[in-house]
Known about the structure:
Structural class: alpha+beta
Strand content: 15-25%
Number of strands: 16
Helix content: 10-25%
Radius of gyration: 18 Å
Amino acid sequence: xxxxxxxxxxxxxxxxxxxxxxxxxxxxxxxxxxxxxxxxxxxxxxxxxxxxxxxxxxxxxxxxxxxxxxxxxxxxxxxxxxxxxxxxxxxxxxxxxxxxxxxxxxxxxxxxxxxxxxxxxxxxxxxxxxxxxxxxxxxxxxxxxxxxxxxxxxxxxxxxxxxxxxxxxxxxxxxxxxxxxxxxxxxxxxxxxxxxxxxxxxxxxxxxxxxxxxxxxxxxxxxxxxxxxxxxxxxxxxxxxxxxxxxxxxxxxxxxxxxxxxxxxxxxxxxxxxxxxxxxxxxxxxxxxxxxxxxxxxxxxxxxxxxxxxxxxxxxxx
Length: 318
C-alpha cells in the first residue's frame, strides 16, 4: 500500500539535553521511529557532504569489480566477496539502473552512479567518525535501553537522481540479527528528503506486530548470501508481539525531513522508500547500533573486525 499519511511534526532536540525527553521516548516506543530535526548542525552537514563528494569522485573505477547493490526486487541480493568483506572497509556499490542493460556499460558518471558507500565509515573516515561517536548518540542509546551499544554497518546512501532504486518494506534486524533482536538505525539526512526524491515511510507501530521471521546470512557453502528462517527470538527483550495487521496490509506514514534530521528506526519496524525519479539526489548517512550483550553469530552477512564492533559508550552500563 502506498504511503497515505504525513508524519506528525518532528520533535526538536532540546538545548542542553543530549538524550531523549520522556515524550520523545514515548513516541518512539509507540510508533517504532522518531524524527529529530537539527540533530546535525549545518557545518557538520556540509562537512559530511564534502567528504561524500570527495569519496565519490576519487575512488578508482579501473580496479572496481562494478558490484551493484540490489534490494532483491529485480535481481538477487548482493553477495560477492567485495560486499562480504566490506564490514571493515570503505567500498562503493553501484545502482542497478546506472548500467546499460544490453552492453553492461555505465551510463552515468561514476559519482552519479553509486547507490551506497560502506560499511566502516564510522572508523575509517574522520568526519563520519566524529559525527557518529558522539555524546548525543551515546545518550540516545542509553535512553533506548542499551547497556553496551555497538556501532556497525555505517554507510552513505545516495538515492541518485532519476535512478535511485526503490527499497521495499523491510526490517533492519533481518540484516543485522541478534538474539534477541536489538538493532536500531540512526539515519541522518544530509540533504532534504522529500516524497519526490524518495524519502522514508514507516508502518507506524509495526515493530510490535511484525516478528523478525528471516535473516540475511552467508551461505554455508561460501557462495554468496541467502535468507534463512529465524530460529531464535523474533522480538526484542521485553517486547511481546501483538496480533495485528499483515505486513502487506500495513499503512505507511511519509517521513519527509530536512537536512540535519536524525531518524531513529526500531529494528523490527517495517519501513521503505520509493524510487527517486526526480532530478535531485537524496544523500543520507546511516549507521546501526546493536546490543553488545546479545548474541551476534557467524552466519550474519556482516562480520565484526578483529577488535569487535565499535563501542558507542566508553564503558558498558552495569
